[in-house]
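Q: Structure tokens for this one, please.
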Amino acid sequence: MANKERPINADLPPARAGDTSAARAEKPAPAKPPTPAKKSVPAKRRRKPVPAALKAIFGLFVLAAVFIVAAIVGGGGGEQTSESPAPVSEAPSTPAGAPATQTPEDLGYPLFATANTTRVGGSDPASNAAAVAVAAYPSTQPSQQPPAVTVVDGDDWRTAIAASVLMAPPVKAPLLISAADGMPDASSEAISALDPQGSRATGGTQVFALGAAATPGDLETKRVSAGGVAGAAALAALRQKLSGSPPQHIVIASTADPAFAMPAAAWAARSGDPVLFTGPDQLARPTASVLEAHPHTPVYVLGPSSAVSSDVVREIGKLASPVRRVSGEDPVANAIEFARFFDGSFGWNVNDPGHGFVVARSEDPLDAAAAAALSASGAWGPLLLTDSGDTLPAALRGYLLDVKPGYTTDPTRAFYNHVWVIGDQEAIDVNEQAEIDELAALVKIGGEE
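A: Here is the predicted structure, written as tokens:
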């Protein structure tokens, strides 16, 4: 009997701790910018009712789709050919005399995607968080509803990143963004659609409210009043109480450089490891108190010495042991190093194909918290960063090439990558998304196409 062909990376040995090298597959020709699909009035079809969860955020996706499609039409430039990929769907024109509002059933869901990427295209973190929460929990039936949601103050990115830990099992509370003077419509609609009921793991709580964030008044709510560094320490204590066990690891990030802290949100959601904060030159007292309570818990400092100095790392080492630093020289490289890193049971260890990824702008720390649920559901995977809205950083391109999936004979037996792109056209251009799609695409290795 003939031997079955195996995935291209199946026989590679596992990467060693700290080893950031990986084989690169030959890259295919660059993808051409997408061409918008021809607009048309949708024909009436008999279909099942659209789930309430999707209807709740339909306005967000309509606006994102219109914005992206307009950018493609207006900014594509040059001659367009039939070879260019088109968006999966686009907001159709409104027929004369028809209501101004379309339903998700008419528009399609998601509104913009490629074969290997899906965009959450909100124009602000609150919209992105609402869309992510519903994507992670479609809530068409009770088994798909989250037991609780976490509502954070949009003015406090530190507590928002730390709050990602409540997305990890057993709590499973996706994050939504609010403000002291009221909840954004996207967050209110998401809570209505998700309809959290509380659980034994949440102690019956339906909403975890942080800081001054406004919340619905009719749900069982537990509020953590502290914010910033103290809020992160309070969340570590809350997570330990809800899970019934001490943390396996602790991540410490910088209060001064949010882009270096962003990757911690995805890991906290995936692992349940709390995220604490410190200043670059002095260990914050609330963080020190948590470390003193867990002197034998491994600590991982995220970011280079410019974000957290060596003096602070030595001070941490006096309170808890062991301590290791995971870092890159800039936010893009730092996120990649964290994606590659592993040390025993800590770290993503994503050095081969077959994973999910999330890509966000390094200027938007709240988007890291907003997207955290994607790293703890579906195709779980690390957060990667781009520092440009229209050009993929060389380091990120190189990493995606390193983990690019390939096959020799049978593509159905290969590993695949999928990338979530966070933000609208202003955050990450559709042409940059197309390049990410190309780098994530499965490619044939050897022989002829």
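A few notes: The two ends are 25 Å apart (CA to CA). The CA atoms of residues 42 and 106 lie 7 Å apart.
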